[in-house]
Amino acid sequence: MVKVITYGTFDLIHPGHIRILQRAKQYGDFLIVGLSTDAFNHAKGKSAYHSYTDRKIVVEAIRYVDLVIPEVTWDQKIDDIQSNQIDIFIMGDDWKGSFDYLNKYCKVIYLPRTEGISSSKIKNDLNGHL
Ligand code: C2G
After folding, report:
1. Is there a contact between 27 and 53 (Cβ–Cβ < 8 Å)?
2. Which residues are catalytic?
3. Binding-site residues, ligand 1, Cβ < 6 A
4. pTM for this one?
């Protein structure tokens, strides 16, 4: 079984999120999502609209996702990769280069982001800044 992992906030789910998860799953048989907790989002300087609990309900319902685990710190990836026997780490290419250090533990792949959509754009558009 080829196991894949990716991480993110996944707030206000949109086609960009779905496409990264869909493509990530194509690389293996089992996809784990490290979902940023509300506290870690604060550390990332992000404020999600939905709570961790609600974002977890949504992400777990996505057909490509097999397991959701909490992402509480930048430093947990090596442990996650080793304890879950991960073969491939995948992120969108806005993170290109940021996680190359994981190459020692698994394959690292950056996939093209979906242009023109983001949770912050959705929030801005809804606030009338169309
Ligand atoms: N993404 C994408 N296309 C978009 C928006 C997001 O491909 N239009 C991808 C991102 O590249 C990322 C994933 O969707 O791989 C999740 O994005 P976010 O929820 O914004 O997560 P982020 O804040 O990038 O957190 O430790 C890693 C961090 O937790 C990543």
Report:
1. no
2. 44, 46
3. 6-10, 16-17, 20, 36, 46, 71, 91-92, 94, 113-114, 117-118
4. 0.97
